[in-house]
Amino acid sequence: MTASRVLVLNSGSSSVKYQLLDMADSSRLAAGLVERIGEETSRLVHEPLTGSGAAGGRRERLGPIADHGAALRAVAAELAADGMGLDSPELAAVGHRVVHGGTRFTQPTVIDDEVLAEIRSLIPLAPLHNPANVTGIEVARSLRADIPQVAVFDTAFHSTMPEYAARYAIDAATADKYSIRRYGFHGTSHAYVSRATAALLGKAPSDVNVIVLHLGNGASASAVRGGVCVETSMGMTPLEGLVMGTRSGDLDPAVVFHLARVGGLSVDEIDSLLNKKSGLLGLCGDNDMREVQRRAEEGDSSAQLALASYVHRLKKYIGAYSAVLGRVDAVTFTAGVGENASWIREATVEGLAELGLALDLEANAVRSPEPRLVSAEYARVAVAVVPTDEELEIASQAYALVTR
After folding, report:
1. Could you give the residue ranges of the DSSP H alpha helices within 201-356?
2. Which residue has the higher pLDDT, 128 or 386?
3. Is the overall model pTM greater than 0.85, yes or no?
4. I need a labelling partner for 178 at 20 to 30 A (CA). Which of 205, 324, 352, 360 fits?
């Protein structure tokens, strides 16, 4: 029996998302979420999916789950109950989403002690994410030390940015000493979506220039030339770039000095303000786009301002990336907001006819789980909606590495 299954783990500070995929046909066998780890109100939701052969349907477990070790053991037990446990000979690898790979990790990497130590050394660059990623890796290795554990890095797809795009214009020696440069994030999504866009156009990725807009609570844009990322909106951290749910995006750095000197805020307070209390939340008090839209339609001026700021920033990046690419074949919307909020797509494309963009309003209004074009037939640049699939991208990269 050829091992073809990959378990994908995305470990957060208090959560673990997972999917089990069979790479023989890219099918999903199971998916689930453990949340509120470390609390009395922990919750595990497990769902065996079509084609898995498992009995029963969606299951939910409530009650304390002490730590990530307990969480992954609970996940293993749910999979085992469906005949798909971690001890299965069909399991080829465990693929881990790791947020920050620095300049060292630009490809999926089999994890050994040295690699794990290097991922741990990158925690200062991603203090909110890499610690949980490391914990997930450590626990998974303890449960199945005999199979490859593969790290797939959010930053890897953007490592192809030319140096002039990756560098900040600060003292070079200082930047090098403290690893200050633009890394970019959401890389697995941008990689998957840019390739899927090319397929939608009936072309090879090497023949297509795409602007990808990954719009969720976190949001980022990328310019992809011939399948290679040449620019992206997030920087050294996921704070830079677009207006997001709770993050400010682009900001004059002197705002930080002003808040410290005049406002008396500490570094940690400023960090919290810009990462957790800004963006849509900071502008109008809500970070759920559906609620912001509802309030705006009812005439709430702060919600209207928040949406105007959000769309304005998107237009700026589309214009800038059109200049960077020279020729744009498609602008693609993805992730929760990008895939589902037709009115965001409409507002973003409005007024960009000079860049070759125009929507088919009827096609844009249709909701579908399938990749699709929503541009007008006469438009010079295609506008696409492509549901992202980061788990499949991680599984594909991990499986390709271990079966090479």
Report:
1. 254-261, 267-276, 279-284, 289-297, 301-325, 335-340, 342-349
2. 386
3. yes
4. 324
Q: Which of 16, 20, 21 is nearest to 43 (CA)?
A: 16
- Identify which has the larger pLDDT, 2 or 100: 100
The Cα 364–Cα 379 span in angstroms is 14
393, 188 in Cβ contact below 8 A?
yes
Residue 39 near residue 63, CB atoms below 8 Å: no
Q: What is the DSSP string of 94-114?
A: EEEEES--TTT--S-EE--HH
- pLDDT score at 51: 52
Q: Active site residue: 154, 286, 329, 389, which one?
A: 154
Q: Residue 10: beta bridge partners?
A: 17
User: Measured between alpha carbons, how far is 338 from 180 in angstroms, rounded to an integer?
Assistant: 30
Characterize 9-33 residue by residue with b for buried, 16 or more Cβ atoms within 10 angstroms of its Cβ, and e for exposed: bbbbebbbbbbbbbbeeeebbbbbb
Is residue 361 classed as helix, strand or coil in its secondary structure? helix
How much is the pLDDT for 85?
85
Question: Amino acid identity of 190?
Answer: H
Lookup: tokens for 392: 């499949």
Q: How many CA atoms lie within 13 A of 398 on its CB side?
A: 36
Q: How many residues does the chain have?
A: 404
For this structure, is 67 an active site residue?
Answer: no
Asked whether 136 and 96 are in contact (CB, 8 A), the reply is yes
Q: What's residue 211's pLDDT?
A: 98
| pLDDT per residue as tens digits for the range 269-299 | 999 999 999 999 999 999 999 999 999 999 9
**Which DSSP letter does residue 243 get?**
-
Count of C-beta atoms within a 10 Å radius of residue 377:
8
pLDDT in tens, 203-242: 999 999 999 999 999 999 999 999 999 999 999 999 999 9
